[in-house]
């Protein structure tokens, strides 16, 4: 890392692809809040939904991998969209293209942000089922206590920079995958797994491929994407990799292969061992009865404690991703400069504190499914806009001269366009419809209100520092061609 980076207080190049992968390996844990939710709608077919969603992740992440090497200073999805849809006219303060890029980054921030609240609730739920002493504590109090403890711990760990968080990631990556794999493989070894629980309950008996059920499936794909495609987070650390051109693709696709195996395995193990009725009896924490059934009380308790450690890892992944999304937006002039303030170690500490407080408020909702459904709206918007940004970057002559050390296969802009339209509008319509069936309109309203908050923040940021905006002039043609 150069001294210039230190002096300017920018994100520091301190990690390699292994450390980025370690941080992103919390992503398989994102299946936990949805195991029971998916089973309630599509029974064993949830296994196929997860497989299709990880496949979608590969299709999208080929595009994101190329964008990462085109814009090595950009912070993942938030940075890519802002780079492509940046202001065309440096003298125009309220540029609509810049607004669109910033909105994509805000949507991505909103997609990752509530992970902290969701898994703080799940940690409290698992602890309550595991530790008898917690049985008498009100759910909300336990959820708030677990959230406050985890948030404070992660702020302290990451205060001195990302390399410290990556070191924690190395430790927790083992604790993340180990319990998922042990609990999921145990029923195959002990003989508790019954294939008939899957083949005999493939889809609900009243399932038909009409418009109603297709919309439900699109909604589930939107929520599955929130979990099974989220390994693109490995690219968000592009500005902090020592060699972003090679580190980003390695971290992305190794993590994707791991996700493909774990998402299928976890849902199949739960369905084949517990059956649909068994999963629905413990919709928030089905891994707990699975572990106790196959590993016994002591073994089950130990692996669940490891699983709780894995939940801390995914909160760490979300914490870092969301804080750097806010930093990226502030750097681009799309959020007030307060959110881009770094400490002496290159950590966007203001953003981290705001995110922690935001999630403490989310915990008061008390329902992981409702929070996830609202968050999925942001993730669908972020992916759709980012994929369209990739298409634009392939056709716009302003970007034709940029280096692309990693290139997606030929014609990938058409694949990206297909999945862009799949996200917007199809998955967006599906998740709104699914929300209306499950939790009324609350999640949808919360989702769109949070997204709409970006508009006044953006206009404020455009007035906050007009001198900077006037200096944001397009680079000469010779520098980009």
From TrEMBL:
Q: Does the keyword Cell membrane apply?
A: yes
Transmembrane intervals: 21-39, 45-64, 106-127, 133-156, 168-191, 211-231, 251-276, 296-322, 343-365, 371-391, 412-434, 440-460
From what superkingdom does this record's organism come?
Answer: Archaea
Annotated source species = Methanosarcina siciliae T4/M
Name-wise, this protein is Dimethylamine permease
Q: Where in the cell is it found?
A: Cell membrane
- Which of UniProt's keywords are assigned here? Cell membrane, Membrane, Transmembrane, Transmembrane helix
GO CC annotations?
plasma membrane
Q: Which GO terms describe its molecular function?
A: transmembrane transporter activity
One Pfam family hit:
AA_permease_2
| Membrane topology listed for this record | Multi-pass membrane protein
Q: What is its main location?
A: membrane
